[in-house]
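dumping the sequnces here before i forget
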Amino acid sequence: MKVPYVDIAEQFFEIEDQVMLAIQKVLSSGKYILSEQVSLFEKNFREFCQCKYSFGVANGTDALIIAMKALGIQEGDEVITPANSWVSSTSSIAICGATPVFADIGSDLQISVQDIEKKITSKTKAIMPVHLAGKMANMKAIMALAAKHHLFVIEDAAQAVGASYEGQAAGTIGDIGCFSLHPLKNLNAAGDAGVITTNNKALAQKIALLRQHGLASRNDIQQWGYNSRLDEIQAAILNCKFVGLPAVLEKRHANAELYRSLLCSEVVLPDKSIVGHDANHLFVIQCKYRDELKEYLKTYDISSAIHYEVPIHLQPAAHYLGYKSGDLPETELSALRILSLPIHQHLTKAQILFVAEKVNEFFKMKGL
Ligand SMILES: *Cc1c(COP(=O)(O)O)cnc(C)c1O
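..and the predicted 3d for all of it:
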């Protein structure tokens, strides 16, 4: 039995008729940039997140860059973020000219609020928590810390469409939320796409300018801006996919619960003490002999992944920041122990039973 890590084409086949019709409609309308479909998508997203403003942009990385530019983050500023993330949370800080400062993580694999506090200096301008794996960072404590030190909070909610914290959607608690709609994410386009959320009117105005050449109107350029727009065809596809999003989240949740009930005690399960609703973007277990387990699963055609093998502070690109091995002990230790099992919505119960059986078999074989 083959168990693929993801099955993106299958997502398309499910709604092929609607998607083809929607694309055809956009093509024949002749309106390809910031038109009805993007507006509809932004409205759908606002309603889903219960926030005031939303802007479709070209991708999740641009969302982060534009968010920081809107907050005026620049050279000389420091932004605190975790090192166990996709590169964009850090690179976006550096690309704005600011200095990424890494905080370590807790046993829940989320950014440690205690370590954030230790890393605050007179130069700190913002905290960028990452809701890794679709789980919420400790937003209550982060918001309290930010208020105490007058810092902005930018939520990297790229993996967290559908996650919430005390009833508030990921991306709507801090000053700005940034989402990716990349094909691998919970809600996804057929290519690159992203969205920015905020409840702050002044920030919304800045974001609107930044995403489109600084244009207030055709002949009124208020500032230099980017060209980072969600395009109409992607928005039309996203609008088709929106309908199925609750079912996708439900299925991912059911898959996670099934794994939890099956996996043996040698496996450390994803933390459940985290407050809020989990979007189950990834199902990250921790264990000894991770690499061997991954190989063992592969011999049975079970795909798994590691998010992420090399923490960002140890990447060549981060060398100039001066971090060395041992600086973020929890992050570094977790990188050797984490393994993401397939959790996507098209898995059958039999496939999950098979994965769990093989994981358990591996540890039995190891004599554990
Ligand atoms: C995917 C991802 C991004 C970047 O999104 P893109 O749309 O690929 O640019 C940023 N942060 C995290 C945590 C991600 O997982």
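The first strand starts at residue 53 and ends at 57.
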